[in-house]
DNA sequence: GTCTGTTTGAAACATACGTTTGACCGGCAG
DNA sequence: CTGCCGGTCAAACGTATGTTTCAAACAGAC
């Protein structure tokens, strides 16, 4: 047992269960019994369930945000003054995510699902935690997006970023289920990397959709 | 009190609270106290909390799926043999949603958020309920999408539909919060209809992204 | 008015939750 | 050996949940 792998066992079990079931739907007793540790260990090592949730995110997000900053550094250095393109920016992000050292084969998709849940489940404490801990790489990404789409108005860009976020979080958050369905229906195997490779062009195309298309059709009973 | 508006008061309160806080995070006591009815009324009229959740969805979804079928009928009649375009299909969907008779001004966005939650929160019973109750309009929509994008392979189309679903569910599920942020940061008011008007072109563009873009960049440490 | 079936009301039910407690163990400094 | 201290453990704490109970209130038919 070395010094105490209890902490890591709790984090592993919590990460997996949170991703499967959500935060409120996962009890400490589920976590501790899956981790094969005593119930009190969570409160002893982390203080509270909320603090455990934060720790699960921090374990992934802290090294990831460092990796991401490096990727952005490389990208901006390579572009040498010119703002990186939208495709380059999106790829820098997904490459950073995919290249993260992973504890097991489902590492990335588990964490994508957690991020999706963090946005969806109205856990106020989590949003606050994420915003104040990782605001720097986030706003840097936003700045790159802005420079890559100068033709968009601020409002258009704002909404399209939300659309991108939604497509990504939602897809990745249920990527396991979606992969299974595809496997059963069409007999096709898919990796997270391949999903990302399909997602990025979709996002880029949507982000750069022609403004002329923004006009809704004639407002009759149905489409024009 | 007529015959019994208790049922409706419960449904109204439940709908709003579920949308605000999620299903597990909303207790029957919150619902009944907001609805100003007795706690036991929920179990008396609906049988269980899960059945109440189903009833909330059915109250909106049943008339909506009828409206949607009509819209698809109109669309296919108008196109007269030719398959409707992607834009037409997406607009038929959003128009149907927007035109639904609403109990209050936030009707649509509340319900969009509920649909998003239904997909996100792993409430097995809800997914099962929705799938078996509303499979018909869903598969019809899928067929229209297929006919509108014949150039896509089945696998490409499958994933891009997931991306669309994600962008829509995610955006709508947090549309209140997103509207508030936009209001504060840029001082812009937005309606659900306007969000839809921005979303549809984004989805259509992403759906029809050039296949050539599907190739990832050179697999070096960063982007090519 | 009386009866009958339906709806409400206050209270209790059993269960599950997050958290706290205090005893216990094992290694290590004195 | 003694004393300590970080860590583990079983058990209990108080609270909140979904559900059930049963008496009271109500409506409409006769």
UniProtKB/TrEMBL annotation, chains A, B:
It holds the Pfam family TetR_N. Residues 4-64 form the HTH tetR-type domain. Keywords: DNA-binding. One of its GO terms (molecular function) is transcription cis-regulatory region binding. Residues 27-46 bind DNA. This is Transcriptional regulator.
